[in-house]
Amino acid sequence: xxxxxxxxxxxxxxxxxxxxxxxxxxxxxxxxxxxxxxxxxxxxxxxxxxxxxxxxxxxxxxxxxxxxxxxxxxxxxxxxxxxxxxxxxxxxxxxxxxxxxxxxxxxxxxxxxxxxxxxxxxxxxxxxxxxxxxxxxxxxxxxxxxxxxxxxxxxxxxxxxxxxxxxxxxxxxxxxxxxxxxxxxxxxxxxxxxxxxxxxxxxxxxxxxxxxxxxxxxxxxxxxxxxxxxxxxxxxxxxxxxxxxxxxxxxxxxxxxxxxxxxxxxxxx
Length: 269
Prior knowledge:
The protein is an all-alpha fold. It folds into two domains: 2-159; 188-258, no CATH class. It contains ten helices and no strands. The chain starts with a helix and ends in an 11-residue tail after the last helix.
């Protein structure tokens, strides 16, 4: 029980933090123009949001635990009803054992039945407290989930329009020089090849599938180019034009662009 109470306190504190962050984010967004520093602050808020999938999973696990606890409590109540009359319960036990020493055991068994019924009653009360605690914790985490979803949706909608990097300048040119220097080092290419070989050896079936797909696309490149030419001829004619030609042409173009090395030669039609 103490663990559930501690978890509920932690959830309450997290909910308060989310509400404060939501209020701060709303105030920043109401300014209208968000600079780089404020935009970075909003991104930090989003990065610190609780994981939605983890919260949904915990809520689901508690719901299952509540169902199990209710079933256990129902079985306890059923057993206690069977022990409501200690004398009759003692007689049933004696009859099940053939009635031997019935009178001598009756009083002792009756006392044991009463003790068992009391213990089951305390156990049922413990299950009731556990069900209540789980329900309260779930209610708190549902509130946290709702607050987090609202803040996440707000940030996702507004951060899309905020600049994610600095404007182009001399720093960008320096990055190009750094990348060009990396490409010119033979050792880096060798390390890249070594890592590629390691990954290929670790996933042979995936590597084989990729190579097979590239090979199939490479072998079909001339046919796909002819299909593109046929689509181009059909476009604009009332008898052959249609809405499906555009997605078909896009799909064929994407498949032609996927295979490597590219071929710049246009196949004759």
